[in-house]
Amino acid sequence: MDFAIQREAMVALLRERQAIAEPVAAAMLAVPRHVFVPGVAPEDAYRDEPIVTKRDDEGRPISSSSQPAIMAIMLGQLGVEPGHRVLEIGAGTGYNAALLARLAGPGGRVVSVDIDEDVAGQARRHLAAAGPLRAEVVCADGGLGWPDLAPYDRLIATVGVWDLAPAWLAQLGAGGRLVVPLDLRGVQVSVAMERDGDHWVSRSVAPCGFMRMRGPYAGTEVTIMLRRDPDLVLGLPWPREVGDVAAVLDTAPTDVAIGAEPASPFLAGMGVSLWLALHEPRWCALAGKSAATGYAATAGIVEGDSIAVLAMEGPLAARGHGPDGGRLAEELAAHVRAWDEAGRPEATALRIEAHPSPATGSGGRSFDEAELEGAVVIRKRHTTLVVALR
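Structure for Protein-L-isoaspartate O-methyltransferase, as requested:
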């Protein structure tokens, strides 16, 4: 069975929920996703859900087949055309490489680079099982790109990227475009960028969430397993000391009301998390379940032995735990009100520039946030990001 009906149902569902480029829809109708996740029941392979395919020794996911919805968005952002040469960072199951090969057509070339030999090997086998496609998989550090086939017309990363690696920018040809899940102080956005003189400028931005890049080009993000069975995970944009957060989450909370509307639809997007990431250095993400509070995935502020997070049920509120939980809840509520007053901006409202950092010797300039009205400057190893509302 080729499960064409399941593919048609998956694409129809995606079209109901979002705009999807016709070439991308055609590729998804043609490529059998179930072949790339052989341990998954074929009917489950066509759900609009990510599928974890590998975990590390601590149980954290490190490889997956991404959710079809975000794959369709990013492929639409990338705009692969027949004959294009495409570099993919992060092979995953090989499914995205197969879609890229369909989009690039028989005259194009796709090379997918993964640092994990197990992942790369599985992707090769899946691609071979799916039929003749001009896509190859190599095991190497994706941060170095793959110069053998450069220059590329398009570059896409299917793994969370903390910074734009110099090799990627060097290996993209004139008029090239890259699409990466770029880290903005712990929150990821899928950003499509093209050259504009001596720097790079976003052409589109969309919310996303990917497993982080590993190896020398990994970022500063920290994932702390607070508890197992049920899982409770704390995410921080960079390493810092926190107290026994798991314990304080089981203590009685201090709630600070923010508004009368229900929390769930208000927090459905990633706008609040993005606002916190850009404006609050103590921000954190909390995912999983706490027996006392029942959180699923939310954002907040953590400081020492105290934490405040946005309640995901009932009326909109900031919920503080620990000795300073009440104060943190007040501060969190103030951030949410500021986001509301700004018009509740989401990722799609951002304009992002990436400039070579002066330390790279590439002629980059220095930035003073006071000079950039309303913009946020984020300094990385190789680039300096300037983030502003359009």
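The chain has two domains: 4-207, 222-341.
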